[in-house]
Amino acid sequence: MVYELYYWPGIQGRGEFVRLALEEAGADYVDLALVPEDDGGGVPALESILEDKRLQRLPFAPPFLKAGRQVIGQTANILLYLGGRHALAPRDQAGRLWTNQLQLTIADFVAETHDTHHPIANSLYYNEQKAAAKRRTRDFLANRLPKFLGYFERVIERNRARGAWLVGARITYADLSLAQVIAGLRYAFPSASRHALRSCPRVRALHDDVFARPRIKRYVASDRRIPFNNDDIFRRYRELDR
User: Residue 189's domain spans which residues?
Assistant: First the structure.
């Protein structure tokens, strides 16, 4: 089966967590964000799903994955599906639930990171909420960033398999997602993230191990990996980095 991934063109966004899982799995997929509109891709492709009146289980927003006749929305939900199909999650129910719990915590982490530059409303430009963004970012960097990183550091430390991963002895989609968050933080807050990660050697090692994996390494080096940019979740504003 060839999957179809629908997301906004030009940004990594939440779609990148799905891309990393598909790449690590070696799955066949079409990234509609990279397909020209004239060839059936881009924004018109995802809008055709969102506006399909025949679709009973319509997604709220991208990313969503078309797998045969199924249309699966929400990043964590897509990864739950892919994890079970492509050995990116444990086989037992407790392990699957734990991996999903970690992914949902990562989703909270991503949302709080995004809100540093858009603390009031997504509909407002950054320059229209800069004062609030500075205040929100100070709290995020001082309190929330070390809390999230410290939590994931403890999760790796307490992993009974004593491996380098969050769950068990094998890589899961949660590891891929956490590595992506660390990469995004290093782009957005190079100074603050370097300081915060000093006390999290296991998280740093997880990031390095993920991006050293052959399939992920080839993907990152390819033109299919959209660069970080300031239209995305992780944005670099010097005045916000301490």
Answer: 93-240
Distance CA 205, CA 160 (A): 17
SS3 of residue 92 by DSSP = coil
Q: What is the dihedral of CA 99, 101, 104, 110, to 10 degrees?
A: -70
Tens digit of each residue's pLDDT (9 = 90 or more) over 140-195: 999 999 999 999 999 999 998 777 999 999 999 999 999 999 999 999 999 999 99
The burial class, CB within 10 Å (0-12 / 13-18 / 19+), for 46 is buried
pLDDT at 163: 76
Could you tell me if 116 and 76 lie in one domain? no
How many domains does one find in the chain? 2
Residues 66 and 117 in one domain: no
